[in-house]
Amino acid sequence: MRTLDRYIFRQTLVPVLGALAALTAIALLSQSLTQFDLVVERGQSGWTFLRITLLSLPQLAGTIFPIALFVGSLVALTRLQGEHEFTAAYASGMSLARIAYPIVRIGVYFALISLAANLFLQPWSARAMRQELYNVKNDLVSTLVKEGDFSTSETGLTIYVKRIDQNGLLRQIFIRTPGPDGHDRTYAAREGRIIKQNGLSYLVMRKGSSQQVNDQGILEHATFDEYSIDITPYFASDDFLQYKESDRYMHELFFPNMKLPGIGGDWERGNWRKLFAEGNARLASPLYNLSFLLLAFVAVLGGRFSRNGYARRIAIASAIAGGTRIFGIIVASGCESIAFLNFLQYLVPLIPIFVCYRLIRKHDISLSHQPSISLLGDGGRGGPVLQPLN
């Protein structure tokens, strides 16, 4: 890479990375707010909350990367153009396409990173996050046990806990378990903890007592230092972990298991179009990195130099970028029901890339017919502008 190429590459990459860091922080904040109920309402630890928040980031890379490239490159190119850095490049004989080369390399690197994330990192992180959320949903403490409330399951078990510590320790426990012929048994304990062993859930209580009225109507009372009961039958659930299309690897999207028996097979056969659309969206979304980068490049350097800035051109490019991404989302949604439209997922980001390329070529061709050095007015809004040498 030539010295000037390295300079342009470095001056553009730093603002892009800054924009990427800022957008990632905003995404983390947004995701943390949506998952905050895991701590407040379901009593999960801060580590569980942080892990689920971080696992959601790879799914946002397809949205964050293009915006970071667009914003960061706009900042860099506007500054370089305002400081007449590109005027020196033109004077050395560089064309606009040649100037674009080190900048486009950044877009290619981001596109490759985004593609790798879509193919491998996103499904891995999405599966891990789905497993975490499934565990939280089926956590007995978070689903039934509420501080200061009497909660009753569908099987008739009633439990009261005065306080739940952050480490999962239950304080001041009262439990009623249904018994035969209405002879329920009650337990009261100072503290306890729910543990899982061999697929079963046990409530281990310490410093407590139990009471039950026998068939003769006599109250039986016993105390214990430690006692455990199997509470698995009281929390039987038919819920199962189902991976959505965003959680699947590419071979599972393009080649779903149609012969899978049961509910899983019915879902595969009924949603193959959604899986196919998701697979094509994973392959097409990295193209938006190049599309947004070239839109920013053309917005600043695709027209004449202006001392008053490029607010109008940047606003137009921003509107085109936003409209392109929104239209891409609409197309992806439509492809979930009409499979043959999936080629549009690639066409939507490719159209701005092709148009920007044509504008850059047109700009270079028009300048090649100019005199070697000419002083041209800037539309009456600025001073003379040096045009590149032939």
| Helical stretch tally | 13
The helix content is 40-55%
Mean pLDDT: 82
Q: Write down how many β-strands occur, each being a DSSP E stretch of 2 or more residues.
A: 8
Uncertain runs are: 372-390
**Distance N terminus to C terminus?**
23 Å
- Tell me about the biggest sheet? 6 strands, antiparallel
- Radius of gyration (CA) equals 31 Å
How would you sum up this structure, described in words?
By secondary structure, this protein is α+β, with helices and mostly antiparallel strands. A six-stranded antiparallel β-sheet has the order 1-2-3-4-5-6, with no helix packed on it. The chain is elongated and about 110 Å long.
Concise synopsis of the structure shown:
55% of the residues lie in helices and 16% in strands. The protein is built from 13 helices and 8 strands.
Provide the descriptors you would attach to this structure in a database record.
390 residues; alpha+beta; two-stranded antiparallel sheet; 13 helices; 55% helix; disordered C terminus
